[in-house]
Write a structure and sequence with these properties.
Layout (H helix, E strand, L loop, with lengths): L1 E2 L19 H14 L3 E9 L10 E10 L2 H11 L12 H18 L7 E12 L3 E11 L6 E10 L8 H4 L5 H16 L23 E3 L3 E6 L12 E6 H4 L15
Parallel strand pairs: 3-4
Antiparallel strand pairs: 1-2, 2-3, 4-5, 5-6, 7-8, 8-9
């Protein structure tokens, strides 16, 4: 099944001519969106233990991911979804990765036959946004290998369509502006967390109890959204922490020729 990510929704009714684009302009925008959108096929992979029952599988690997006509993107996605979650070992083959994960469970079950615990590795590599300049992915992974609970994380990837390279903060901000970016982000974080400017951060997991941004961010048309996964800055019970920085707060420190320069506050 071939999909196209649509980045605009057109109104079926109009309130007034002044509040909406002319029909011809809308048609041209739709054509441009279709032109800038990379087509892809969604692949649904599933593998489990040989003795799996219909209503109960002891261990399974499930992956939903896109395949493009761009080899560089496909290799990038493959490297991520085939890296084993418990040791970071790359396999570069989804079947091999699934077999390794399931075999690890079978070894565990052989040593502890009475254990009711199962294994689960569930991945969803989805397209979050794309335009003529870049494509963004949200990679969601859930892993359970025993214990009180599994771990679900989300990792963002912003990929430039020019060379298909990962867009990092250094590509958007000069090193001299990173201090300012961090200060702006900390103000938003403290307000969001209900903290005063002089409150200590000793209840968080920041290095040296000093606020810092990570590289897990996604580019949107309104601003940058950063995401801290469980255990990164807070205990598991608090879940993920999102931090949104609108462009209006950082427009003065964005590189003039960066991929963000087209977005207006």
């Amino acid at each position: 099944m071939r999909h196209h990510l649509l980045l605009a929704v057109f109104a079926l009714t109009f309130i007034s001519c002044n509040q909406n684009k002319p029909k011809q302009a809308e048609q041209e925008e739709a054509k441009q969106i279709a032109k800038d959108t990379l087509a892809y096929e969604l692949i649904n992979f599933y593998k489990t233990t040989p003795s799996c029952k219909i209503d109960s599988c002891e261990a399974y690997v499930k992956v939903l991911y896109p395949v493009f006509k761009v080899d560089t993107l496909n290799k990038f996605i493959s490297n991520i979804i085939t890296t084993l979650p418990y040791n970071g070992q790359p396999t570069r083959n989804l079947n091999l990765a699934a077999d390794s994960f399931i075999n690890d469970y079978l070894k565990f079950k052989k040593e502890f036959p009475d254990s009711p615990a199962g294994y689960a590795w569930d991945q969803n590599f989805r397209i979050a946004y794309q335009d003529e300049n870049f494509i963004n992915f949200a990679y969601q992974s859930y892993v359970y290998t025993g214990g009180a609970h599994g771990l679900e994380t989300i990792q963002y990837f912003n990929i430039s369509k020019k060379g298909y390279q990962i867009i990092q903060l250094k590509d958007i901000f000069d090193p001299s502006e990173r201090v300012q970016l961090n200060a702006i982000a900390e103000q938003i974080f403290r307000k969001q967390e209900g903290l005063k400017a002089d409150d200590h951060l000793d209840s968080y997991f920041f290095d040296e109890q000093k606020f810092s941004l990570n590289e897990n961010f996604i580019i949107t048309n309104k601003g940058l959204e950063f995401l801290y996964n469980p255990y990164e800055i807070k205990a598991y019970a608090y879940g993920r922490t999102a931090l949104f920085i609108p462009y209006k707060d950082i427009q003065e420190i964005i590189k003039k020729e960066s991929i963000l320069s087209k977005f207006k506050p």
